[in-house]
Structure formats: structure tokens, C-alpha cells
Amino acid sequence: MEFRVLGPLEVQALGHTLALGGFKQRAVLGLLLLRANQVVATSELLRALWPDEHRPATARKILQNAVSGLRTALARAHGRNAPAQLLTRAPGYVLRLPADSLDVSRFDQRVAEGRAQLEAGRPRRAAELLREALREWRGPVLSDLVEQGIDWPEMARLRQLRLDAMEFRFAAELQCGHHQAVLGELITLTAAEPLRERLQGQLMLALYRCGRQAEALAAFASLRRTLDEEYGLEPSRELQSLQQRILRHDPGLVLAAPAAQEHLPDLVAAGRAVPTAPVTAVAEPVGSPPGGAPAAGSLPRPAVAPARPAAASAAPAGPTAATATAMATAPERVRRAEADGPTSERRDVAVLLVRASVRPSGGHAVAGAQDALLHDAMSAATESIAAHGGLVVGSLGQVWAALFGLRDDTRSAGPDAVRAALAVRDRLAGRPDLTVSAVVTTGGMLIRRSPAGPDSAVSAVGVLLDTARHMLAEVPHGRVYVGGRVVTDTEDRIAYQRVAGGRSTGHGLYEALAPRPRRAPAPGTGHHEREHELTVLTGLLAHSRHRRVPYLLTVLGGPGSGKSRLLTEFAGRAGATDDTLVLRPAFGGPTAPAAALLDAWRAAGRPRTAVSADAALAALVRSVAGPGPDADPLLRAVLAPDGSLPGAPAPAGTALGCWARVLPAAARRRPVVLCVDDVHLAPDPVRDWLEALAGGATDAPLLVVACARPELLGQRPMWGVGQHGASTISLASLPEPRRLPANQSAVPPPRERLVVLRPDSSCAQLLAM
């Protein structure tokens, strides 16, 4: 026989639900079950059923009839030998039953076991036990009786015990790295229980680990405001400490290595962690020593345990002494990192996601065999990625993630990532029992580094991982797909073909076919193929600086013309000194234009942190709008295009208009160069904004360099026409190197022709250079 009070009142016997009679009879049984194996006085039962002022004269008789009806129902189910017995004991009644037959007793037992496992440092087992305990709940306590006005102190006690159990379960899940899985529950529960500070702290931690640090801080601010306004209190010291650690991106908030190790599947080698959040990754450089990565205490973006990918030949199965050493020295590394403080920077990186799955076959039906196969595949992929300069950050199920461009020249990140993806595909293509696909995308991410040294933990925070994950859903087996920006940066080194689809990027996907042969530099060429064009760009910047006027230069060129490399080279030279601000927003991708400008501003703030860049931008906005409340809409539009600040987010057009006021103000302090690639892929509002920006500012040295393919003029025939400070450069494709006979000496190549169209003059002038 089974009794259930955690939800509607039910009694199960021999697979059937017993009929328990009317409301009074059910209420008597409910109270006796809440105090199972305890004597409940008749006076208490009477008070529980009727208020004193409404108690009928026949109340005792009604109670006796209810008890008699319950005894009959229990005896009918099991006879005289029923495991549950309703006995008369002075001064009232007692319901005796085995502990395991009542859902409250099973709940209490599982919670106690789960807490013990959590205190013993076994969060995975603790989470399982606490989930089992919470599954006993089918709704509010005695919910059918509550609908008729019953509300006893015992019910309130159980509700609090359930909240306590949920908090312990969230603590275990967070230690296991399941912050993404519990985030929705935490948001819902904290909305219902806004004053439970432990829940609020768990929500802040989960938000931070999911790359949503602004929302984590907003949750703290909301709690502080509620406590102050309603009770005149401040949040607890623990919660205030958590807020400060989030503000400084404390590496101690990264998932602790021992907790992460406990829930890793067998397919992952010792020392390699598995990230669980798609927007945040933490990794340790490939081949670093066991003690090189700081472990963490009990946020991000980041969000997963430090990873140490190693070759399969060097990674034994199961924990190793090196892993134990890393765990033992973790507290010392964390203390050192907390003392020095982490550093943050915004930079462009390339993300590679590789998805592998086992083909269905009889030989791999056993889960252990599948895990071993995936482990071998991951080891092979790790070797190929490391050989191309990539950093494996872990796995998302059967998807492995790697970052490129963390140490090397950022310009090589895209090509290296695509070559690594092709190498992994080719290496695993010979395995008939595996299917492999991959995707590469590039963009800006917030990179956090521990000051412990070059081999310390690195965390990357941003939406780029989510973008890559959505793209990967469209990639068939055996293929490598990339986004449009990757093609622009690497089309001279990798052969591509356009594919149908492209729902993830909005501008189509391309399949990477194979690396192109490396071209030897032509005889007599300098360090950069476009040295003449770089001279023109540098001269226009000097002109804009000297005259304090805006200027729009459009660079047109087809595939292979090197316009993207020209833009990158010029941006590097222009930003080599601190007196010029160079912004490179990535328009045309999944990021909104205003958010792309904000990312570019933060990236231009290196080596300053993103926080200091935001502070400088806020000060600039207030200098434009004034210190009063009129600055608030402008601040929201510029600093929070995603609506993360209080107030309604500004529409895209309004946000761009705000940036049109901010950038000239920045240029009046120091020259600004706005480098925009792939303008032919940018939306029309961005193109209108670029033209208006270069033609509307006054007394501002603002140079806009817009690179595009020739189809831009087909889309916008009047692009730049009518503006005094506008011109166009047309680039021809770079020549292929010529093979000379052995007896013929190299001759200098003919001078390239640079065509400059000046629409501001009376007629177009063609200048050969």
C-alpha cells in the first residue's frame, strides 16, 4: 500500500486507487499522514477541520464517522493484515505505516542521502538522488484539499523542505557543469521566491557561466533594490562577494576540476573537460603541463572546467597522477590568480566545431564500444587541430569545439581553422564506422586570461559558439561548411563552392573543398602586394586628419583581389599609434549593426579591458547628450543594443543614428578610421548610414574605408556620387606567378594600374599609377 500527499491525496493498493470518501474523511487522512506514526489529539483534528466559531455540535460524531470510514477502506484493500493501521490512542488517533510506503518519508530519505553525497564531494550522485526525491512531488501538498481551504502548518513546512531540496539540487547540478540545463528552472523559481538569497546567488552563477554576465548583475541589482525598499536591508555578504567576483571575472567562478571530472563520460581522456554551455568555453593550451591550468571553486562564458587535450597515445584511460597533481595544486593557483586578477580583451577568433557520430551497426551496439570509438576519433581530431595552431576547448555532447587566433596572428586564424577542419575530415574519412562534419566561423569574442602565465586557463565568451552550433545543424555528413566572412578572408587559400540553405547566417553557406596551393611571391614584389594602394589610403587619412573633414573611400575588387588583406593591413598600420582609433565592425552577419559597432569599439580598446572601453564610451555619449536624463536613451541605444539596460531597446535605425552622433564626437578628440568589409552584403540601412556618416559630419577627421565586390555598384549605382569627400579604388585580381625557363632571368613585373574615380570633380579622372 502506498500513500501520497505530495500532490493530490492518493492511496494505492494492489495497483488500484482507493476511494477515500468525502472531504472530511479525506482531510482526516491527510492530517494523519502528515503526522504519520504520531498520535494526533482529537482536539487538534477538530481544529484542523473546523474553525472554533464554525464548529458544529456534531463535530466529534462526524470525526468518528470519518475515522470509521477510513478503517473500512483500508481493511477492504488489505484485510486485517494491512501494512497501514489506523488505531485509537489517547488522546486521539495514530496512523501506523511503514516509512517506505509514504512519499514524504521517501522524499526525506533521498534528500538526506543527496546532501550527504554533496558534502562528500560527489555532486553527480547527489544530483541523481535529489532528482529522485523531487520526482515524488506531483504538485502542491494535498492540492485537492487546498482547493477547499485547507492550509496547515505541516504543509508550509513541506513546501520549505522542497525549496531547500531544490537549492541543494541546483548546487549539485552547478558543480557538475549543468548550468545551462537548470537555468530555466532557476529563472522561474527566483521569480516565485524573490527573497531566497541562495537561489538568487545560484541564478547569478548560472547566468554568468552561460555568458550572460550583465543579466547576472541585473539580478543582484533587482534583489538589492527589493531588500532596500521593503525591508531596509542589504544582500548578504556572500551575495555581495559573488557580485564583486563577477565584476572582476574571477577565475574562481570557473567550474572546479574535481567536480567536472566526476561527470565526464568514459570517452574523454583524463584531464580533458567537457563544456556544457554553448556560449562559453574554457581551455588550457595543448600540451601544457598538468599544473598549468587553474582550477575553480564552486560564470562563462566561463563556464567549463579547464581542459587539457592530449594526444591519444599520451592519455591513459582513467585518472592519472598528473591529474591528481593538478587537482591538489588547484587552490594555490586559484589564490594566485585571485591576487593578480584576470585580464580581458576583445579580439577576433575562429571557431571550429566538429561533429562525429557512430554509424548504426551491430558491432557498436554496446555503449562502451561507441564511447571508445568516439574517444579515438577525438584524440585524432585533437592532434590535427593542434598541428594547425588550434586550441581544443572541449566537447558539447558529440560536438568538439576548438578556437584559433588566440596566440598567433589573427589574420591566419580563419585559414588555419579551415585547414584543420579539412584535415580532421580527411583523417576520419577512412573510418567506415564514423560520420564526421564540421563548420568554421569567425568573429569577435571576449577572451579572458589568467595572469598565472602563458599556459594558464583561457575562457572565451560570446555568441559565436551559438552561431556555429546553429550552422552545424545544416551541414551533411562528410562536409565542411563555413560562413560568408570566412570565405572573404580565406578565398585565396581555400577552394569553396556555394551551397543551398544558409538559414543560420542569413547570407548563405559555403562548402570548403580543399586548400589551394600556396603561391610563391612574384619576383620583385615588396612585403605587401598592394603597397601602392596602402600609400593612397595613408595619404587620405593624412588628408582627413589635416583638413579635419570626413572622407569615404570605396575599395572595389572581385574574389582574389586581396581587398580584405588590404583593409587588414591598413587597419594595422593606422592603429599602430595611440592617436588614431580604428574600428572594424562586422556588418552583414547575425549580429545587429549597433551591436557590431559596440563590439568593434570594445575590440579597439585593447589592451584595455572591455569595462574601461564601455566607461570611455559612456563618457563620450554623455558629452554628446549632456549629463541630464536626455542621455539615457542614447546610452541604451549605444551601450545596450540588446536591451540589457533598463528601458526599451532602441530600434536598429535609431541606434545607428545615435552612433552617427557619437563617432564624429570621438573623431574630434582623435582621428577615427572606420574599416568596413563586404559592404555589398550589408543591409541597406547600414549602407545609407555609411554614406550619411561620411557626408554629414563636420570638423571631424573621420575616414570611412568600405570594401566591396563590384556588384555593390549594381545594387547602389549612385553610391558615393554627389559627396565632396568620396572616391573609389578598383582593384584588379593579383597576377599568378609565372614559371620562367631555366635559362631566362626574372624580369620585374609590369606596374599595376590603380584606378581612382573622383566623382567630386567635373569629370571622372583616370589616374594610372
Write a structural description.
It is a single chain. The protein is an alpha+beta fold. The protein folds into 3 domains: 1-175, Orthogonal Bundle (Arc Repressor Mutant, subunit A), CATH 1.10.10.10; 251-317 and 327-515, 2-Layer Sandwich (Alpha-Beta Plaits); 531-734 and 751-757, Rossmann fold. Helices cover 43% and strands 16% of the residues. It is built from 26 helices and 21 strands. Strands 7, 8, 9, 10, 11, 12, 13, 14 and 15 form a 9-stranded mixed beta sheet that branches. The protein has a 6-stranded mixed beta sheet with strand order 17-18-19-16-20-21, with helices on both faces. The protein has a 3-stranded antiparallel beta sheet with strand order 1-2-3, with no helix packed on it. Helix 25 (684-696) links the parallel strand 18 (672-676) and strand 19 (702-708). It is elongated and about 105 Å long. Mean pLDDT is 74; it is low at 256-340, 503-507, 520-527, 606-611 and 737-769.
Pick out its properties.
Arc Repressor Mutant, subunit A; single chain; Alpha-Beta Plaits; disordered C terminus; 6-stranded mixed β-sheet; 43% helix; Rossmann fold; 3 domains; alpha+beta; 9-stranded mixed β-sheet; 769 residues; 21 strands
